[in-house]
Amino acid sequence: PMPQIPRTGSFDSTLALLREGYDFISNRCARYGSNAFETRLMLRRVTCVTGEEAARMFYEPGRFTRRGAIPQPTLRLLQDVGSVATLDGEKHRHRKAMFLSLMTPTSVRQIGEIFINEWQRRLPQWEAKERIVLFQEIQPILCSAVARWAGTPLRGKELEARTREFAAMIDGAGSAGPRQWRGAWLRRRTERWGRRVIDEIRSGARAVPDESPAAVIARHRDLSGHPLSTSDAAVELINLLRPTFAVDRFIVFAALALVEHPDARAFVTGGENERLEAFAQEVRRYYPFFPVVGGRALEPFGWRGRGFRKGDWVLLDLYGTNHDERIWEDPNSFRPKRFLEWDNNPYSFIPQGGGDVRSNHRCPGEPITVEIIKRAIDMLANRLDYDLPPQDLSVSRSRMPAVPKSRLVITNVRPRN
Ligand code: HEM
């Protein structure tokens, strides 16, 4: 018989989760010598699972819904009601295909080029400034780039407003309290803007290129042939812009890797595509970003000798799986080289979810995420010179989403000749 899934001694683990953050699940799995355990979070029974075998169980197509699986305030900041994340079955597949249709190689290359152009356009300002807080200064660049790519360019005050709103939504997603309230408040303005944009595209008042993501979303039809409601279309437009903006954190982590791991810097000197890609993947594996994903069972199923019932809540440990010693040699070393000979197993490397992206809820945005990180690494390692003043670069693993304490300050920025 399979071993039972152990249960934590404490009645409710919510405080422990807030305290231990990214390490909450893996700490307990190590303690119990198990890839799964049961506990309560916010008073609800939950099974927490980690590792490749758990990811295979979790990403079985059709097994879990995201509805009721993520605390509502977090959902509203990250995905929104009415978005692809809240759909299941055929409806989900159909909406998901729309997102995936935006990830053609040409489209992915375009966002990379637009991003670098935006960055270069701002370089004179960077050179003129005494100090650059990378986390903050990259935000308007990314925001402007993704909006331009989507077909809805932003300027001036509008760019400032959207940048502020996206930053607050992402920052507020992992907390309860003021950071979250601020995100929720600002999100309403973003949604008003999104609805206006969709209405203008549909009425012809706003000209957008036919193949641009905003146009694709505005004319998308659901399975019964109906266009999305204005608010659902706005939600999906924002669902494209906001998470692309969130690549911000990976860029800061890439910059951190370059300063923390001098060997890693040498690895990408020369800017070969294969090496930039391996470096970007290692950034996504090594640094903490999205801690866990949650699902509620749509059907009963068995796993590890336990019967799961419809409605049971399961949390899959993304961060811990990316650091699982059974999968990764020396998981706590930053080693881009490992991705030069990686086997592409979609259940062992899951920074943005795993398995088959078309039929489950895995993130559709990985191609553009990797593209933008690669471009940023090349820029930071090979095209710019800068100094690193003394600062606190530590990354708290109990703050979700994580970011270096100092937000990474650089000084004396100049283009490399
Ligand atoms: C879903 C992470 C970038 C759009 C997800 C999920 C995670 C994730 C963990 C949930 C997976 C699941 O529920 O199983 C990230 C991270 C990113 C990122 C860490 C880096 C910044 C992007 C980008 C896009 C995007 C650039 C733009 C297209 C989405 C959408 C979903 C999603 C639409 C819902 C998919 C579905 O329910 O089928 N992402 N993502 N994400 N992401 Fe991303």
From TrEMBL:
Pfam families: p450. Its cofactor is heme. Keywords: Heme, Iron, Metal-binding, Oxidoreductase, Peroxidase. It is an enzyme of class 1 (oxidoreductase). GO terms for molecular function: heme binding; iron ion binding; monooxygenase activity; oxidoreductase activity, acting on paired donors, with incorporation or reduction of molecular oxygen; peroxidase activity. InterPro entries: CYP450_sterol_14alpha_dmase (IPR050529), Cyt_P450 (IPR001128), Cyt_P450_E_grp-I (IPR002401), Cyt_P450_sf (IPR036396). Heme binds at residue 363. SUPFAM superfamilies: Cytochrome P450. The keyword Transmembrane helix does not apply. Its EC number is 1.11.2.4. Gene3D superfamilies: Cytochrome P450. Belongs to the cytochrome P450 family. It comes from Sphingomonas yabuuchiae. The keyword Endoplasmic reticulum does not apply. This is Cytochrome P450.
